[in-house]
């Protein structure tokens, strides 16, 4: 495919992150192997929906939201520093659902993500019952990731499993609106919805 000016093709890469150290390994691996030609990454964090039996007033709801925002700011801080040092454009996405793999798959489908990178589970020793009754996120993604998306499962900085895309996905003519640089805008790109889609 020819790359002409601001309308070159972009491959969207997302990394699913949590508090596990393999998440940082996954981001580093993606930066070294996938973000070379298109230095932009989407970090996806899934936060479980809290079920509270006590009704919450508006004031405490605002305080709770501020606490969650500060918690997410602190959570993404190491990733921001790493991406800034590498010159990688970063977009942070926080999704809420109790089924982590399902909500990641929905996000991949809705945003046409070409590459998804996840850290392997720290529990590398599975019992027979655990493996079939309660698979971890990377195992569930491996079974249900869309055909247009390549899945990389990273453990200790090395790919443990790679499931290649089976069909070519939608190639985005422009990066997502949040990732347009000021240089691209000055060269004639716009951040209106018509040109992004």
Describe this structure in words.
The chain is an alpha/beta fold and 197 residues long. It has one domain (5-49, 69-196): 3-Layer(aba) Sandwich (Rossmann fold), CATH 3.40.50. The protein is built from seven helices and six strands. The chain has a six-stranded mixed beta sheet, with helices on both faces. The chain is globular and about 45 Å long. The two termini are 19 Å apart. The model is unreliable at 1-8, 51-59, 125-133, 173-186 and 188-197 (pLDDT under 50).
Secondary structure: elements and pairs:
Blueprint: E1 13-16, H1 21-33, E2 40-47, H2 58-86, E3 89-96, H3 100-111, E4 115-119, H4 128-133, H5 137-144, E5 150-155, E6 158-163, H6 182-186, H7 193-196
Parallel strand pairs: 1-2, 1-4, 2-3, 4-5
Antiparallel strand pairs: 5-6
Helix pairs in contact: 1-2, 3-5
């Amino acid at each position: 495919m020819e790359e002409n000016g601001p309308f070159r093709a972009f491959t969207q890469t997302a990394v699913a992150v949590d508090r596990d150290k393999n998440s940082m390994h996954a981001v580093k691996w993606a930066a070294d192997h996938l973000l070379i030609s298109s230095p932009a990454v989407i970090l996806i964090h899934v936060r479980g929906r809290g079920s509270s039996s006590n009704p919450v007033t508006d004031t405490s709801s605002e305080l709770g939201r501020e606490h969650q925002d500060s918690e997410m700011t602190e959570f993404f801080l190491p990733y921001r520093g790493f991406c800034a040092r590498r010159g990688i454009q970063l977009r942070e996405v926080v999704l809420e659902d109790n089924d982590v793999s399902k909500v990641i798959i929905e996000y991949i489908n809705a945003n046409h993500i070409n590459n998804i990178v996840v850290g392997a589970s720290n529990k590398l020793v599975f019992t027979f019952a655990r493996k079939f009754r309660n698979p971890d996120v990377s195992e569930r993604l491996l079974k249900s990731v869309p055909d247009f998306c390549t899945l990389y499962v990273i453990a200790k900085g090395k790919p443990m499993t790679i499931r290649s895309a089976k069909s070519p996905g939608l190639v985005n003519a422009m990066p997502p609106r949040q990732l347009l640089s000021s240089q691209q805008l000055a060269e004639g790109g716009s951040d209106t919805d018509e040109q992004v889609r």
